[in-house]
Amino acid sequence: MKKIILLSVIISLLITSSAFQSNFKFTASFQPVAVIELFTSQGCSSCPSADRLLSQTINEAKKDGRKIFALSFHVDYWNRLGWADPFSANEYSQRQRAYAAQLNDNSVYTPQMIVNGSMQFVGSDEKDLKDALDKSLHTAPTAAFKTLNATLQNNTAPQVKFSLDGNYAGCNINFALVSLSETTSIKRGENGGLTLTNEHVVRQFISIPATAEGLINFKASPLPSGNNTAIVAYLQQSNNLKIIGAAMAELK
């Protein structure tokens, strides 16, 4: 009788262990990601150091294979102070203000980095960035992009097809059309006389409620020139702005 009971216990433990491993494999199939949103301006003298840190992080991630997705949002509230940033838009300033409200910040500033929608710090602070990336890349996501394909329709308007996997309830999908690299000679303002290079500059931005699959059409303008364009897509919870999944596709 004791042998029968012991055998039953062992079988029960094996079944439980097998079920746990199956669930764990499903969750672990989604690689941890880190999405860096840098709010910057070519008119801000403190911003070039943050721009360089973003560039350095992009290059390091390419070498070591970490799933780090970088976005450079150029705000427009510096434009009245001597130099109108050609990549700035009011919608990017409004996006930063939405983060400020969620994160209980009293004001917006540049340069500011926000990682995975939940950790914010001065954009040139290398230690804070490292800490935020380490935390993000050790957090298992609950959703991911199964596919993300970007094409140029009729040589004008970018089009993106996507599909999702996992639990993305209550999320929005953000699609950022980015210029991989832009170099600008600054004529006036705090950075007058400098030549600045900005990477992963957001040129167009679309946000929609998350669906299992879909098709997104960008406008024909503004677009980067040449083979200099990519799409960064990321899943963001609408209630707390936390980012739970991301993918990137270069335009073909």
What's the mean pLDDT score? 88
CATH architecture assignment: Sandwich
Looking at CATH, the homologous superfamily is: Immunoglobulins
What percent strand? 35-45%
Which fold name fills CATH's third level, the topology?
Answer: Immunoglobulin-like
Given as residue ranges, the uncertain stretches (5+ residues, pLDDT < 50) are 1-28
Structural domain tally: 1
- SSE run: HEHEHEEHEEEEEEE
Describe the largest sheet.
4 strands, mixed
Number of helices: 4
Shape: globular
Q: Could you walk me through the main structural features you see in this protein, from its secondary elements to its overall organization?
A:
This protein has 252 residues and is an alpha+beta fold. It has a single domain (34-250), classed as Immunoglobulins (Immunoglobulin-like, Sandwich). Helices cover 27% and strands 38% of the residues. It has four helices and eleven strands, in the order H-E-H-E-H-E-E-H-E-E-E-E-E-E-E. The strands form three sheets. It has a four-stranded mixed β-sheet. The protein has a four-stranded antiparallel β-sheet with strand order 8-7-10-11, with helices on one face. A three-stranded antiparallel β-sheet has the order 5-6-9, with no helix packed on it. The protein is globular. The N and C termini lie far apart (68 Å).
